[in-house]
Amino acid sequence: MKSFTLNQTVVSIAIALSVSAFSAKAEKVLSLEQAIVLAQQNDPWLHGSQLKQSAIEDKSIALGTLPDPKVSLGAMNLPADTWNIDQEGSTQLKIGISQMFPRGNSLELKKSLLKIESTKFPLLRENRKAMLKSKVSQLWLDAYLAQQTIELIENDWSLFEQMSEVAKASYSNVIGKTRQQDVIRAQLEIVQLEDRLTTQKQKLETAIARLNEWLHIYDAAQLSDSFNFDTQPVGFSVSTTLPMIRLLNPTIFTNSTYSRNLLAQELAYHPALLAIDVKHKASQKGVELAKQKYKPQWGINTSYAFRDDMPSGDNRADLFSIGVTFDLPLFTENRQDKQVAASIAESEAVKTEKLLATKQMISSVEKELRQLERLSERQSIYQEQLLKQTHDQAEASLTAYTNDDGDFAEVVRARIAELNSRISALKIDVDTLKTVARINYFFAHLQPKSNAEYKQLRTQRLSNQQFGEK
Closest Cα to residue 164, out of 138, 144, 139, 192? Predict the structure, then answer.
């Protein structure tokens, strides 16, 4: 009984999900360009990055300001026998004020350091947009592949059903050459085709669900509405036309000019590497800031002491004091020296960070390039030979069978081979575009925005005190 109830629950959930997905499907067709724009416009990370940048900029102003002065109030040298303030000449009511000044140029350096750090956020946002474009492209193309594979299978479905009916009719006719195993084979192929169709529908629904994560509508002005997930769009289909995705920088990959050094120089303008440049420049400011600890910290204090008149009525002069305080950083071996050494080590470590990132990028680009070359070769094989040959084979085997000169199993195998080759050709086309999209991520600075923005990236890189380059 429990098992039956559990099965009913599972079926009910499946039906509910199917109905909700179907009703939400109002069949909105989403192109790749629309998906990318939606993902980039509705990414909370980008808004959070802007807020973090604003916070860092505000902190830079706060850290560049002198500390607040300190005020002190006190009564000094009160006589303990009478507590009269006019009894003793040393009795005073005192108000003082003191102001500390940071070591050397540390205030300006702290302010500069945070200002430099704030400049990495626009670069990180550009990197995020490039990542989003690549990620959404992969998911959209996965959905496209599943959707078009479903269409290919459904288009051939009626053909296989007709073949099954022909096999049954031929088997029932004692004159025909069809055997019982041919009828069973035809029915088996239909069942297997149905399983393939179900598998592709699963892949399509999975890709749509994963793509939905990046299409969540986000309004920074109405953040609470973004948590109402029931109002978010759910059902859609991708367009039936394969988009055109071209390499952003094809000339650098030609055999005659390709060089890893040229590739590394081009990758140096990538926002992720420019952000590391900013980090290095900030770490250099950190070294300068650490060196300020060798300088003394100064302070000034002033006070005014009020004294009451003497009991005889004679006037007592009020007192004014002023003084300067400073520390002496004499024992620097275990404090200042170590802090400077640590800052230098941190700054040098950033260089290795950039080297590692560059090596990873070069390796990834070359891996994708090798894959792109092989996919291009396979595309040529399918377009020029395989698709035509499998189609001709299917037609020839069917003609031979209808003329009582062929085997029914061969007809089925030829039709399945033709369908498989068409699906494989489709997958190769999609994998080629996915590979191009992944390569284009590494040339995010060449995204078609404007020449002015590209020049700004180059200028910013040059101003970031590059390292590790000739």
Answer: 192
Q: Which two tokens stand for residue 361?
A: 């990028």
Task: Please state, in angstroms and rounded to a whole number, the distance separating the CA atoms of residues 365 and 362.
Answer: 5
Q: At residue 173, does pLDDT exceed 80?
A: no
Give the global pTM. 0.78
411 Cβ contact list (under 8 Å, min separation 6): 163, 394, 397, 398, 401
Distance CA 155, CA 296 (A): 84
**Residues 175-210: pLDDT tens digits?**
455 556 666 666 677 777 788 889 999 999 999 989
What's the token pair of residue 37?
Answer: 């724009």
Distance CA 322, CA 299 (A): 11
Alpha-carbon gap, residue 134 to 129, rounded angstroms: 9
The pairing of strands 29-30 and 70-76 is unpaired
93-95-96 Cα angle (round to 5): 140
Could you give the 3-state DSSP secondary structure of residue 65?
coil
Cβ atoms 421, 381 nearer than 8 A: no
Q: Report the amino acid identity of residue 143.
A: A
- Phi and psi (nearest 5°) for 99? -140, 130
pLDDT band at 416 (very low <50, low <70, confident <90, very high): confident
Nearest to 209 by CA among 143, 150, 144: 143
Q: How many CB atoms lie within 10 A of CB 251?
A: 9
Give me the DSSP letters along 410-433: HHHHHHHHHHHHHHHHHHHHHHHH
Which residue, 345, 408, 306, 290, is CA-closest to 92?
Answer: 306
Neighbour-count burial of 358, counting CB atoms closer than 10 A to its CB (0-12 exposed, 13-18 middle, 19+ buried): buried
The answer on pLDDT for 224 being more than 90 is no
Residues 6+ apart with CB under 8 A from 367: none
- Do the Cβ atoms of 368 and 434 come closer than 8 Å? no
Q: Express each pLDDT in 262-279 by its tens digit.
A: 999 999 999 999 999 999
For residue 3, pLDDT beyond 90: no
